Amino acid sequence: MKWQISKQFDFCYGHRVWSQELNTEFSLDDCLMCRHLHGHQGKVLVHLKSEKLENGMVTDFKHLNWFKKFLDDTIDHKFIIDINDPLFPTLLPHYSTKSNLITMNENYLIPDLTIVKNEDIHIQEMYEGFIIVDFVPTSENLSAWLLKIVQKKMAQINIEVSHLEYFETPKSRSVVYP
Question: CB 3.0–4.6 Å: which of 2, 17, 85, 178 could bond 34 by disulfide?
Answer without folding.
Answer: 17
